[in-house]
Amino acid sequence: MSNGADAVLGTHLQELRRGSVVLASLLACRRPRYGYALLTTLAEAGISTEANTLYPLLRRLEGQGLLASTWRTEAPRPRKYYETTALGAETAERLHSEWQALGGAYTDLRKAET
Questions:
Q1: According to the model, what pLDDT value does residue 102 have?
Q2: Smaller CB count within 10 Å for the chain: N or C?
């Protein structure tokens, strides 16, 4: 690919990943996680994201009632843990169903063109 094509692809991959980080965060936070641990969990699952993207997203999801947070101060460094709420779990299930349906539709479109 040329540099121009790489740049265009990079832009579209970033947009695709941006939407998937919401679903991934809701799924990963079914068990309480603090920010850095969530970054690591997502990266290990193949969903890399930057801290400057994730932390505002976590605050937004908390503001929407999809995540709840608690401070844990028993360790030397206090950490804010996030956990998926009931509304967040319901939203994650619906987003996951939509993700699967879209994946099937893309596969069908790809097969139809070959």
A1: 92
A2: C
